[in-house]
Amino acid sequence: MAPAAGRAGAGRASRFPLATLPLREKLMVAMGGVCALRPSHSYFAGESQLPLEARMTGIYGGFRLATVLLLIFRRVGARRLASKPVIAVLGLGFAAMVFDGINSTLVEASLPHLYTPTNALRLATGLLSGTALAPVLLWLLSTVAVPGTDAAELSVVRSPWELIVPVGVSALFAALVMSGHPLSYYPVALISIAGVVGLATSAALLLVLPVGGLDGRVTRWRQLLAPGGVALLLALGVLAGAAAVRWTLLDSALGGSV
User: Fold this and answer.
1) Of 147, 188, 201, 251, which residue is least crowded by CB atoms under 10 Å?
2) Concatenated DSSP letters for 18-34?
3) DSSP run (H or E) holding 49
4) What angle do CA 11, 188, 62 make, to 5 degrees?
């Protein structure tokens, strides 16, 4: 699937929205700027390779699921991240992904390493880091956007026990990814891709709000509609540009034969 997606995507990136590719190949092409899409580093749903590698599926899937849970828990506007013990746990979750990533890089470079990496470890550590990123990004957005009030001094994560729910949901997501069932493709793909777009949009919003003069002035959801739309367009533009560059470079490397 990956080679086919590469051959279909290379040279077509500039006209991706009009490409007559199957949807699953379009998703692969669209995520070409996010990761390398190596089959050996990816999970499959039936015979279809997922549009993100295992680690990225974990990072963005975990981020998306944890963000939804925080929204359900009504933690928007909280201007404190968490207590020191909770911050330490979040830091360990992110550090686990970094450590596993460094070890994997050493393996690929044929350098001394501690253990043989697996897709299960890539997925698990990715989920831990994605779960850790969600409250941090929500805290940053709240700090930038929401006026400082007594009510806003609540924490995004109020106790270590609150991490049990997102970790449990991530475990269910991991089981779905690792099942390899053909019907798991779209749930996994859409959740993880929504995480990619959501993370990129949130990062862009951190820049858009101050530029638009809304930093510290957002008191209603509707005030975020315009800057949120701009941030979404910026995020999609960056993702599309990154994919276009990747497939164009691949096309050039292959001598335009694809």
Assistant:
1) 147
2) G----HHHHHHHHGGGT
3) strand 48-49
4) 105
